[in-house]
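Notebook entry, structure prediction.
Reason for the run: the old model in the group folder had no record of what sequence produced it. Starting over properly, with the input documented here first.
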Amino acid sequence: MKKSIGIIVIMVLLMISLFCVPASASTDGDFTYTVYAPGEVTITSYNKYGAKNVVIPATIEGYPVVKIGTAAFARTEITSVILPDSITSIGNEAFESCKQLETVAMPKKLKTIGWQAFNGCSKIAKISIPQGIEKIEKYCFSGCVSLKEIVVPTTLKSIDIAAFDDCESLNTVWYLGGETDKSNITKQYHNDDMWDATWHYNSCPVGAPHEYSNDCDAECNGCGLNRDVPDHKYDNACDTDCNVCKAIRQTQHTYDNSCDTECNICKAKRNITHSYGQWSTVKKADCTTSGTQNRECSVCHHIDSKNVDPLNHDYETKWTVDEAADCTGAGSKSHHCTRCDAKKDITTIPAEGHTWGKWTTVKEPTTTAEGKSERKCKVCNETETQSIAKLAEDGHTHIFGDWKISKAATCIETGKAERACSICQEKETKEIVATGHQVGEWEETEPTCTEEGYRERKCLVCKESEKEIEKALGHDFDKDGKCLRCGLSSSEDVTEEEKEDQTVNENQSNNGKDQGEEQQQGEKPSYWWLLWVALAAVAGAGVSAVTILISKKKK
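New structure, fully documented this time:
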């Protein structure tokens, strides 16, 4: 156990030697000084003999000057000294027997004054001991025969032996505390000169009473006395600026969580960043309708939403048959969207026509009556019949060759086919039904101010067109004489015909419904009738009527 204690003591001494052993003394102009770890300067002596006024620097070599060493200025002829606020300690006998010293500016951060520090300074008339000093060491101001007044801080706890001995001129003590506080100071003997002087309590030696900048100011403007002050006045726990002295403090707002934007106390707003997860689809977007996606903050569960743009149609490149063409009816085809039922490029598929089989005799002819034969479409089973001519008087059966088209059927007109008996050359004919128009899609041209518009579609077979005309719109001039549609800048450039059209359009706009009603009441429908066209096919003694075409056109 003793061995362990010995090791510990040795280690402590080594550490003390590392941190407390000074570097070699240095001289910088007027001063000799030593730099101690961790970089603090002690003034050890003053080298400028005969100098009167001394100002000690706050730093040397960039290090703070924190101490006046033992007897550093003892027995010099200086008359005044200013100590920087960086100094916290005045060593023993530092200014002993400086008999010409009259004024000493004590630093505010001073904590200790060594014994006999100002002993024998016979011309000092006033000393202000700063706040923070707790003890005045023995013989500190002994022999200061000219000392008339001192300032004593409230932090002073003890006055050592003969600290103010032989100070017979001392008659005024400015005590920064109250009279009851004075009784707390421990007084050793040979300090009667101080104790018998007149004490002024709670008074400022610069001018009574103490003066403060405001109710929150703790330090007297005159003597620097620190007082207890009430708490600063703030509007709330988050207010940083005191309502009295404008002192700034650090505060922290209170929020429900890291995503809360409003302080619970002062309602201050802040910008936050939510901790969102991945986007999830709430409503899927389709070709024409936008969708919705949400994501949720993992901290406060705030929901963030966004719209997803419509996908637009995605049309296939291959045709899809929407309605198949059959023997007599047209079909249609289009390009379908891969996602929905939309389709475009709707196109007519022409009728395919019948695929006939062979003629079959269902009634044999005789010399007195016709026979009948028929054939069927291989696709739709549509049946077509034809008569078989009566047998010739000699009893032979007509042997007809293939039908030959003598007149081709068109979209609106019937055709005719005929064939002849290879024996007697007797002929028979038959009608070919009109195919009817197979129209395409409408193509539209918008009307302009001066030109008509229309929409038109054509038959895919005969190219006959059907057109619907829309009257030219006419110019629509604003108050500046500029057409709102075509930009024509002057009505002078409009032709007489266009002006007339414009007038008509305006009148139509003004008359509106009344004019429409007059037209309906006054107009009589008239019809143009085409000629009845009859094509008769004679087979034997029979006569068949042909299809009657009627066209009606509204005037």
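Summary: Residues 1-6, 16-22, 512-555 have pLDDT under 50 and may be disordered.
The old model has been moved to the deprecated folder.
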